[in-house]
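SEVERITY: medium
COMPONENT: batch folding queue
REPORTER: lab tech (J.R.)

DESCRIPTION
The queue accepted two submissions in a row. Attaching both inputs and their returned C-alpha cells so the on-call engineer can compare them side by side.

ATTACHMENT 1
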Amino acid sequence: MIRLSKSCLSSEEKDAVLGVLDREFLGMGMEVQSFENGLADFFDRPAVCVVNGTAALQLALQAVGVGPGDEVLVPSLTYLASFQAISATGAKAVACDVLAGSLTLDSNDAEKLITSRTKAIMPVHYAGGVTGIDALYKLALKYGLRVIEDAAHAFGTIHNGRKVGGFGDIVCFSFDGIKNITSGEGGCVVTNDTVILEKIRDARLLGVEKDTDKRYSGQRSWQFDVSAQGWRYHMSNIMAAIGIVQLKRFPDFALARQKLASLYDQLLVDELNISALVQDYNYVVPHIYPIQILSKKPRKLIQDTMLEKGIQTGIHYQPNHQLSYYKSNREFPVTDSVAQRLLTLPLHPDVSEEDVRYICATLIDLVNGPPVAA
C-alpha cells in the first residue's frame, strides 16, 4: 500500500526518545528548550513550543487579545483546527473564499467581510504555498489587524528569500505525525513580539507566570501567581527529542518532497482532466499534493479504485462553512467549486519516484477511461 501520508522515522529518533526515558524526566525540560533553540536558529527568530498546532493558533489568538465578540478572517478551505482554534477563544471565525490557482486566502473577499469586530486575519498556507500573503499584510496594515499565519503546511517554504516563520507578525506551525517535520504531536509559535512570546510561555503552563525557566532547569514553581487564563498546552521532552532529530533531517525531507511534487507536475501537466496547484517547488516545501479532477468520473469511484490498486488518497478539505457549527449562507464560488473536485495524492519522503509514476499512470487511466453507466 502506498500511504497517503506517514511519519518518516529512523533509529536516531528512537534512540533520542529512549534517552529521555532513561533520564526519567518526561515533562517539559531541557529537550524542549533545546528544540526551541534549534527552531530559533532555523527561523532566525524566537520560537515557543506547545502541545500541537491547534494550541499554537489558539494561544497566539489569545495573546493578541482576541476573545468573545471579536471576529477573525480565515479561509473556509482549511482543516477544522483553524476554525476550532478561533472559536476556542470565544471569537467568531469568519469564513472567506480562496484564490483559484493557489487555494490560499483571497484578500479581496476578506476585505468585504471586515467589520468593527474584526481583530485578526488567519491566512492558511495551503499545501505549503503562500500566494497572496503580501496582499494580506497590506490589508492588515490598512485596517490595523493582527496576522496569525497558520503555517502548518509550510515548514521550510521560502518567500522573497526568507523562510516562512522568519518574517511577518505571528506564525504558527504543527509538528504532528505527518507534517514536514514531526515531534509525534506538537507545534510552535514564532514571532519577534516579545510580549506575545511571554504570554504564550505562561499560558501553555496553565498561566503560571515565569514557570518556563523553572521547568528548563528541572524544577517547578511551588509559589506563583496567575493573572490570565492558561491551558495545559506545553510540549513534553519525549516530543521535543523527536523534533530535534527531525529538524536535523529536514534538508533531506524537504528535497524529497520537492522532487516528488515536481515529478507529479511533470507527469500530469498535459492532462486535460487533471489540474494541479500552481507552485514553484524551488521555494515551496509541500506538505500535501492536491489535484482537481475535471472529468465527470465520480471522485468516490476514483478513490475506491485507486485504493484497490494499493494507493491511498485523501480530500483536503471539506469546507468549514458547510459544517453545522460554522455554517455560512454567503457564497463561496471558488471554494464550493473546487471542494467537490479535490483529491490528494500520496506525498512523503518514503514515496519513491517509481511510486509516483505508478500513481499517475493509474490516475490518468481512471479519469480518462470510459464514463460510468448511469
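ATTACHMENT 2
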Amino acid sequence: MLSLLLVPVVAFSAWTAAALWFQTLRRPVMRWLRVVLWTVFSIAVLVSLAHGPRLLAAAAFLGACACVLLWWYSLRPSNDRPWADDVANIVNGQITGDEAVLHNVRNFSWRSATDYTARWETRHYDLRQLDSLDMIMSYWNVPGIAHVLFSFGFAGGERVAFSVEIRRQKHQAYSPVGGFFKEFELSIVAADERDIVRVRTNVRGEDDYLYRLRLPRPAIRSLFAAYVEQSNTLLSTPRFYNTLTINCTMLVYHMMRHIVGRLPFSYRVLLSGYLPEYVYSVGGLDMRFSLPELRAFGHITARAKAADDDPRFSAAIRAGIPPLDAQ
C-alpha cells in the first residue's frame, strides 16, 4: 500500500522539479534555489510517509500540489516578448477569392547563424496558380526526430514554405524537454526556401530530404488556407508549443485530417523523423518508386550547399527528383 502511495509522490515531485527548472532558466540562482527547496521538501515528505507522521506528510504534500497546479495553470502564452530575430514575426494574411496576401514572409539572407540580413516582406499569390506541395524533412542528430516544412509551389516557379516552429526568446536555445514545460510559444513562419531551407542545410548543418506530395489541387489550396487561418489565430490567441502534442507535425496532421477526412493516426506522426514512412503508407508520395528510392532522389543537402545563395535555389535543390504524374 505504501509503495502505491510513493509512486505518484515521486512522479509529481520529479515533474515539478523539471517545471521549476525550465520556468526559471533566465535566473540561475532562483532556478537552483527553487529546485533544491522543492527537492528537500519532497524528500522530507517521502521519509515521513515511510516512517511517520504519514497523515501530516500527506496533507502537506497535497497542499503543495494544489499550489503547484495553481501556479502552472496561471502561466499564459504571450506574443509580447523579446523574440529571437528569426521568429520575431508570425506570418498572417488574407484570402479574397483567388488572391492571397501574406504579411511577414521571411526572406533572410544568411551568412552564418549570427550574421544575417533580416527581411520581412508582404507577398501576393494567385491561388489559381497553386499547383504543387512538397514536404521537406530536416534532420539533425536523432533519426527519429526531424523538423518538417511544407512548401507550396505556383506555376512559374514561385514558392513559399510554411514551418511550425518554437517561438523562442533572444536568450533561449531549443530544448525538446523544455517543450514539455511551457518554455516556448508556438509560431508559424512562412519564408523563401532560399532562407528557411538554406539556413538548415548550409548554416546549421542539418540533413534535408524533399518529397513531392500526391494531393489534389483543391486539397493543396485548402491546406494553404488552413495555414493562413492558424497563423491569424495565433496572433490573437497565442499558444504554448508542446514537444509531443502541439508541434511541427501534429498541427499539420490535424489540419489535413479536417481537409481529407479520415486519416489514420500512427506513432510516426509523433516521431516526426518517420513521417515519410507514414505518408508513403497512406499513398501520399509518388507510388511509382519505393520509399528508399524517393529518399535517394530527395536528398537535397549537397544540392542546397552547392546552390547556396543562387536565386534559382528552389529549382536547383529539385534537380533529379522525378516530377509527379498529372493529378
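NOTES FROM REPORTER
The chain has two domains: 2-74, 85-317.
No errors were logged for either attachment.
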